[in-house]
Design brief:
alpha/beta; Quinone Oxidoreductase, Chain A, domain 1; Rossmann fold; 2 domains; 7-stranded mixed beta sheet; 6-stranded parallel beta sheet; 10 helices; binds NADP nicotinamide-adenine-dinucleotide phosphate; oxidoreductase
């Protein structure tokens, strides 16, 4: 494939991903030039493509990847040519064989972690890490409701929660995904596609769960609140079914003096110190065999539109990678 990358010039469906051949120049101050071994597909890429998370257009697409440093800009001191790195966030533009990226979003990879494992687990793992340890601090014995439990973030979160000693109810849409969720640590699984799960949650935990991690948004919002114990915490971190409509905040009082946060990784891994601490925590969990890569589906980079179609039609489990 010639050097280049996918760009979006008009928001819309997967057909809006347009391959543009282009040469990548020398990195500027604070940048590195990276040759990707593997690029992670994140649901956020779909929000960017659709305009649900609006970006100035035209824009590159993709927020995570791993590969080799080909060139370093001035004042980059923590990375050298030939280093193997992984990154999360920064300017979208990962759907490319070679790209420039801010060096402060990249972390050197331990030798034992392959680029493919890193691209599959880094962004999703950092997300699980801050959700479970910072957005709400899950403790042993607590009850957790986790949506999309067999998805990319879901499979990492399940393993981390199991390690902490939490009881996890996973929600998935099919029996096949239910088996996966059980295999990676869910103590209970509910199969649901309609947002009718709160009654089933209360059959398992009559008082309600301590925390809900909801990446689905519009379709699950009300039932997620209805699944919480008094003074429980709703952590909303995505909207794969669409945006949550405006709400009257008094609903939180009426349903049990609930807490609500809508959080994003950009605010939890904002500084270099936070990114390095999150990465060190995740790498030690991978090295210790506590977090393993779940199912990974590889697509050729040119098949990024198909990867998007598969992800948004709920056909996938685990992580999706684009291979240049
Ligand atoms: N806030 C943050 O910091 C942050 C960071 C990273 C990712 N995220 C969010 O985390 C979520 C998971 O990301 P991911 O990349 O790992 O994706 P993913 O979970 O692998 O894929 C999305 C899953 O959501 C479920 N889903 C439920 N309703 C859906 C609908 N109407 N349309 C599509 N999918 C639906 C599906 O699982 P079932 O078929 O089992 O229902 C689907 O497989 C996304 O919402 C993403 O935006 C947030």
């Amino acid at each position: 494939m010639a050097q280049g990358g996918y760009v979006v010039t008009q928001p819309g469906g997967a057909e809006r991903l347009e391959w543009v051949a282009s040469a990548v120049g020398q990195p500027g101050p604070g940048q590195i030039r990276l040759r990707h071994d593997a690029i992670g597909v994140n649901y956020i890429d779909i929000y960017h493509r659709m305009g649900l998370y609006p970006l100035p257009l035209p824009t590159g697409i993709g927020v995570e990847g791993a590969g080799f440093v080909e060139a370093v800009g001035s004042d980059v001191t923590h990375l050298s040519i030939g280093d193997r790195v992984v990154y999360a966030g920064g300017q979208p533009g990962a759907y490319a064989n070679v790209r420039l990226i801010q060096a402060d979003r990249a972390v050197r990879l331990p030798e034992e972690i392959t680029s493919q494992t890193a691209a599959a687990l880094f962004f999703k793992g950092l997300t699980a890490q801050y959700l479970i340890k910072s957005a709400y601090q899950v403790k042993a014995g607590e009850w957790v409701l986790l949506h999309a439990a067999a998805g990319g973030v879901g499979i990492v979160a399940l393993q981390w929660l199991k390690h902490i000693g939490a009881n996890v109810i996973g929600i998935v849409s099919t029996e096949e995904k239910a088996e996966l969720a059980r295999a990676y640590g869910a103590s209970h699984v509910i199969i649901d596609k309609e947002g009718n799960f709160s009654g089933k949650v209360r059959e398992i935990v009559p008082q309600g769960v301590d925390v809900v991690y909801d990446s689905v948004g519009k379709a699950t919002f009300t039932a997620s609140l209805d699944s919480l114990r008094i003074r429980g915490m709703m952590v909303s971190f995505g909207m794969s079914s669409g945006k949550i409509p405006p709400i009257d905040l008094s609903i939180l009082g009426a349903k049990g003096s609930l807490y609500f946060t809508r959080c994003t990784i950009a605010h939890y891994m904002a500084s270099r110190t936070q990114l390095e601490a999150g990465a060190a925590d995740l790498f030690s969990m991978i090295a210790g065999g506590i977090i393993k890569s779940g199912p990974v589906t590889n697509y050729a980079l040119k098949d990024a539109p198909q990867a998007h179609r598969d992800l948004e039609s709920r056909r996938t489990s685990g992580s999706l990678l684009l291979i240049p």
